[in-house]
Design goal:
248 residues, alpha/beta, Spore Coat Polysaccharide Biosynthesis Protein SpsA, Chain A, 7-stranded mixed sheet, two-stranded antiparallel sheet, 8 helices, 11 strands, 24% strand
C-alpha cells in the first residue's frame, strides 16, 4: 500500500490540520551550458522578469503543497557552490545534484537524489521559467493516473521539409503533431525503470517522453501553455519578459 493509500485508509484526508502529503518530487534540469545564447554567464542564471531564470521554476514548484523535494541539477562547477539566490527557497525541500554529460545523465542523477517519499516525478527544463500552475496540475493528474504525461501544444503552423540547399522538399501534414514542453510527469517507478533499461540498452533520447516511447512505455499529452516558451536564443529573453508582463 502506498503512502497515499495508507493515509486515505486511515481517514486522514478529512482532517484539515493534517499536513499535505508531499509525494511529488521535481527534477529541474539546469546542467546545460546555454551555448546558443552566448556570454560567460549560464543562461539559467540570467535574470528574467525580475529574478534569475532558474529561481522562477524552483519557486513555482515549491508553491505546490504536494511537492516534497525539488532537485536542481547544475553543472559540476556550480553544484558544490550554488549561487546564493537559490537559497531564497525552502532549503528543507531543496537539493542540488551534479549534471551529467547528457540530459539523460542529468535527469538520472536527479532521480537518484529524490527521497523515497516521492512516488511521482516531474522533470522540468530550467529554460522554461514561466510554466503555469494549471499546466502543472494537468501533468500531475496524468502521472497520478499511472501514465507518463507530457505538457504539449498542437502544431498550428504549416510544416515544410527543407533540403540542405534551402529548397522545400515537401509539406508535412501537421495532423496529430504536438510540440512537447515540460514538465513531464511519471510514476517514479516507471521513470526509474526506463532510465535503468535505457542505460543497459544504450538508448539516448532528447527528453523523458522520447526515452519511454523507445522502450514501449505509453505516454500521453495534456495541454501546455504558449507562455511556457523555451528560452534558447538571445531574443527569447525579450519574448519571455513580454509574456510575463502580459500575465500580470
Amino acid at each position: 500500500m502506498s503512502a497515499r493509500e495508507s493515509r486515505d485508509a486511515a481517514g486522514e484526508g478529512a482532517d484539515p490540520f493534517t499536513p499535505p502529503l508531499r509525494d511529488v518530487g521535481v527534477v529541474i534540469v539546469a546542467g546545460g551550458s546555454g551555448s546558443r545564447v552566448g556570454g560567460d554567464e549560464l543562461k539559467q542564471f540570467r535574470w528574467i522578469a525580475g529574478k534569475p531564470m532558474l529561481l522562477h521554476s524552483v519557486q513555482t514548484f515549491m508553491a505546490r503543497p504536494d511537492v516534497g523535494m525539488v532537485v536542481c541539477v547544475l553543472p559540476q562547477r556550480y553544484a558544490g557552490d550554488p549561487p546564493p539566490w537559490l537559497f531564497q527557497c525552502d532549503v528543507d525541500r531543496l537539493l542540488v545534484s551534479i549534471g551529467g554529460r547528457t540530459r539523460s545523465e542529468s535527469v538520472a542523477n536527479g532521480l537518484d537524489d529524490l527521497p523515497d517519499e516521492a512516488e511521482f516525478v516531474l522533470v522540468h527544463d530550467a529554460a522554461r521559467p514561466l510554466v503555469d500552475a494549471a499546466t502543472i496540475d494537468r501533468v500531475v493528474e496524468g502521472a497520478r493516473s499511472g501514465i507518463g504525461t507530457v505538457a504539449a501544444l498542437p502544431v498550428v503552423d504549416t510544416l515544410k521539409q527543407v533540403g540542405a540547399d534551402g529548397r522545400i522538399v515537401r509539406t508535412v501534414s501537421r495532423d496529430g503533431l504536438w510540440r512537447a514542453q515540460t514538465p513531464q510527469g511519471f510514476p517514479r517507478r516507471m521513470l526509474v525503470d526506463a532510465y535503468r533499461r535505457a542505460k543497459h540498452e544504450r538508448i539516448v533520447a532528447t527528453d523523458d517522453a522520447a526515452l519511454c516511447e523507445q522502450l514501449g512505455v505509453p505516454v500521453q499529452v495534456v495541454r501546455g501553455a504558449e507562455r511556457a516558451l523555451k528560452v534558447t536564443e538571445e531574443g527569447d529573453f525579450a519574448r519571455a519578459e513580454a509574456l510575463f508582463a502580459m500575465a500580470e
